Amino acid sequence: MRHIDRRTFLGRSMKAAAAAPLLLGLRPFASASAREAPFEMLVLGDSVMWGQGLREEEKFYTKIREALERDVVCRKVNLRVLAHSEATILPKHKFCPDAPGEVPARRPTINAEVELAVQDYAGAGVPLGSVGLVVVDGGINDVTVARIINFLTPDDKIVSLARKFCGEAMRDLLDTILRTFPNAFVVVPGYFPIISEQTDPKTMNDLIAAFFGLDEGAKMMKRAQEMMAKRGPDWLLKRQAALSALWYRESDRNLQRAVAEANAEDAKRRGSAPPGVRARAYFAHIPFAPDESYGAPNTALWKIVGSAPGGGFRSDDQMYGARQPLCVEYEPAPFRRLVCKAAGTGHPNLRGEAKYTEAILARAREALGRCPQAAVSRR
Questions:
Q1: Which of the residues 81, 219, 262, 372 has an alpha carbon 20 to 30 A from that of 187?
Q2: pTM of the full predicted structure?
Q3: 101 in a structural domain
Q4: How many whole angstroms separate alpha carbon 286 and alpha carbon 192?
């Protein structure tokens, strides 16, 4: 496996910038020799694609790489991961200082990740036409989790932001990816409902404080208590569950639309392609039951489990300990450092990551099929 993390990647990407334009004109046809070369898999997006809080061997992309080598392409898979915590789709062409993927940083944006991928492939002498699978997500950090869990957020705000970022911005991003990697299939996984009515209400204070800060979080909870006094003790949880369900539905709907529109544009662009050529972009719905939301009985998300030494919160993710020195090194702002400490909060845990692995792999197999060796071994 050839796995390049963001820190190494950024350090050498600029050196390849001059060569990048030479690769953009590659034709979307793979040669026989290319079929024998290593299969190239690229992972773009935010903390969900990065696998926030998971050890490397537990991340979905590691397991998908293994499955591809075992029974889908049956050859070596080179894996490049540019996804990182807190990445947004927009604005375009925004890069950031060098930092590990586990440290939240809005830049480089996911559009910039595509540009960096072009530069890195050029530097490594890998034709863009040899990239066979791109897995990409995006949109939640443009909308922001804070808005989704804020009980004061109007429903129409979630609807409009999902349309703008999961729909329009993702469609444009997919169009760029399909143009840039002319032979790649692209899988776009959805998101999940953060809170449900099965979420333990006792977890809400800490969750709000983790996203808004102790002072602002305390003010919000005071306001929530006032509203619950008028509307009932279960009003807060029901309101947040409704917002999460709305986000889940609208993000899925708009990501599906973005995939359909990008496929239509790709088909139009490849007008001379033979009839029956399959669509290249696929949406992967991630099934999440109410009891798998944050703080629910069978939660599929990492959660806050107490206070952290020196302030902030402790999360139960696998990378909590390893992340702490990185937060100190890369986050000079006190509040951002506290956010970084418990950055695993609300991300897929082992149960949730298995859902992503299964859904993405199903779509990858649908696009790529199985290699002859695998088909023979299954008889």
A1: 372
A2: 0.90
A3: yes
A4: 7
